[in-house]
Amino acid sequence: MSSVVSQWSPLPPYYCWQVLIFLLYLSNVVSGQIRYSIPEEMKKGSLIGNVAQDLGLDLKRLRAGRARIVTGESIQYTELKTDKGILVVSERIDREQLCGDVTPCSFSFEMILENPMELHRVTVEIIDVNDHAPAFPNKGIHFEISESATVGSRFLLESAEDNDVGLNALQNYILNPNDNFILKQHANPDGSKYAEMFLQKPLDREEHPFLSLKLIAVDGGDPQRSGTVNIEITVLDVNDNAPVFNQSVYRAAVVENGPKGTYITTVNASDADRDTNGQITYSFSKLKGSIADIFVIDQNSGIISVSGQIDFEKDKKYEVRVEAKDQGGLTDSSKVVIEVIDVNDNAPVINVMSFSSPVSEDAPPGTTIAIINVKDADSERNGQITCSIDTNLPFKIKSSLTNYYNLITDSIFDREAVPEYNITITATDSGSPPLSSARTLHLRISDVNDNAPLFDKGPYFAYVTENNSPGMSIFTVSARDSDWNQNARISYLLEDTQISGSPVSSYISINSENGVLHAVRSFDYEQIKQLKLEVKAQDGGSPPLSSNVSFGSCSCRNVFRTEQKCL
Prior knowledge:
The chain has four helices and 43 strands. The protein is mostly beta strands. Mean pLDDT is about 85; it is low at about 1-30 and about 560-565.
């Protein structure tokens, strides 16, 4: 972010009042943060919170400041009722659709007010409702297990899915009582549960060639929900040894955006049996969501590689379970943890949330003219953003809330010198190499009536022949004004003076628009030999500014000439 050091120097007297305003001006944008918690599935129009009350704002301020919700996350779910100062639900909110497994589930947005500018961040947390029961991906689970499987052999079971979170999510598995198997449950680092069957009593194919069990998955909601799947086991003849992985956990890393076929790691299991009973095939256990489209495992070699799009901004780490199975139906399982390495592949994005143009040329330093939001989808240094502007411009950019910047004035403007500015804001991340983006704002400076009209010459003098015709043009005065529009519109008038006891207007008139002086009467040299008067040029500002010039004329016999001064 650019840094500009201000050096104070004495100001001309006519700027003193502007400095006084600056000392009294509190130009920093007011900012605040509020947080609400609501359950999912609330009806449209349901109250989220009283924004006006919680921010200490009255309804008149909300309307006058054109309070509105600006770009944020999932703003379609909320609506600001400025007439009541409340925030309400505008669309059905499904926590599972909005956040998936992420907890806590929330979205944030900003509310902006103008004149003066205020920026407030609002966060809405969505509380889970137990509206999903655990469900298994398939109607049944099938195993082929040799009767020679040893006590303690493990059999990984397909996991149920529950889209709810917290206590409402899947909490427990229950296996119906039986003589041969017991159930053991485990938790992944992300909190999800999975289960394995352990053989506690040898199988006897001759007595029970088929076994049918029931697995129940239950959540912790109130009321409790559950899902059921049947486990069908075919008992095979003699396969003495189950496969065994050489590692209980495999760890690997892959760069995001890696092309299809990129090697990740190799898992390996061994089986002490011979021939077909010792032949091992590898597979993933049930993969959740999009993971099934991202990774592939070679069933013969155990090589895991990339098969889809890997995006660090979506998932920073993946955990999958792999299974080794011999031809006799015995299995072993292991876990693979894949870390995703971030690549700086996203440039910062600049959003202009509010921009005030034109700005008055008498705006004091520190006036906020724009609120900027910047975002970068990358992480860590790749997502750290610095904003800057050209240091030669009379502006500076200042951080406010996270990812928000205020563009403020840094000196006093002079519209007559510079009537407009092109301000380019550059956002650069800290990646290697860094990526950047730019946005240009066109700011116009509005005029303040700070220049009085100036006459081209002065004083003026004219010779007029006597016995002239009334209404005759005598002379033209001209003034100019450096201001703009109405502030530069000049009107000419005569100051009230007396000539031989009579008002000057009984002798001379002036066209207020073009400054042409006319004789009101016919002059008589024997009565009046010289006229002296003051002409005022006044602009159309509020309040108006003016300047005067002296004008003199002599009545002459048979003479007519004009000059800047009397010879």
